[in-house]
Amino acid sequence: MIGGMEKLTDRFLRYVAEDTQSDPHSDTFPSTPAQRSFMEMLAAELRAMGLDNAAVDADGYLMAAIEANTDIPAPAIGFISHVDTSPDMSGRGVRPRMLLYEGGDIVLNDSVTMSAERFPELEFYIGKHLIVTDGTTLLGADDKAGVTEIVTAVGEILAHPERPHGKVCVAFTPDEEIGRGVDKFDVGRFGADYAYTMDGGRVGMIEYETFNAASAAVTVRGVNVHPGYAKGKMRNALRLLQRFDAMLPDERPENTEGYEGFFHLVGVDGGVERARADYIIRDHDRESFERRKDIFRGAALSLEDGEVSVDVDIADQYYNMGEVLSGDNYRIVEMAIEAMKRIGIDPIVTPVRGGTDGARLSFMGLPSPNIFAGGENFHGKYEFVAVESMEAAVRLIEEIVYSAVEA
Hints:
alpha+beta; eight-stranded mixed β-sheet; four-stranded antiparallel β-sheet; globular
């Protein structure tokens, strides 16, 4: 196999065949039973490698640890990935295909083509072995690439007991894609001094700044009257929601990049009498984040009058982990950057235009920057990952572990 890691590709293909989609409408934890089943499978795999302490707890988290094999002082370093795939597109019946990419468009099926013009990032992967979808499902590289890389790195470390290392802590989490990934995560039981989430994109990416994030909903109660006799009487809740959306600044995901925040309409439900719109609000700057929430409330409440009532519900989800990964904690980021350089990877330091488990974990006392897992175009049928990218992530995990002792 490519790069000599014989089990990595087969392992990834086996993992993405498991449908572990999370469900935002479920009130269980994990939100789907398939996630726990997959965790149990992973735990058995780790135990077969020699990690007798690998176990899935009552809340569905899988934790394990490789104990230090040296008396040289070294930090306990954690590596974390999530097992669920996005509910945005089906993850059932994934039929991946591997190809050597030589440029140009990639035909996924008779009606779906990944255009090199529309997806210019493909140029970066010329000469690489890509794993792509068949155009009917997502791939699941987010984050089964990360899961694959951690399990593979564990196997490599255990296979070389002659190399000194400190304690290595491993965790796999459920429901990251629906914002619940670390709701019940026990930082103390995990036992790491700091951690890296393996949940990023292209090789070299390291992210220590995330959005501040909130979910937001506005519910409008209007007045429904037979449309034949509605003049001067009907107050259409759906049209009032349209007016509300038009009042928000035109700062949407499709219009923003870098550190720019946004309002993102993610769903509308209802009818003339009652209608609800769901949004997410994002901004890297905490003050701007608070202003966005105020703008949202003000626009919603401006719809109210004697006949129309409006309810607003805003809930913070996570905060910019850059607040934690600064000062002395920035050294954790620097160590990953230095490890990349030592193994020939050019670091790409970029803000996360999204969230990771590491954002919340950092505020829970476990500083956790995010490292590349190698995938591209997450959450849809154009998702892909390069085998070489996953191999690079495995090498990086090992380099971080061993260099913590050798430093």
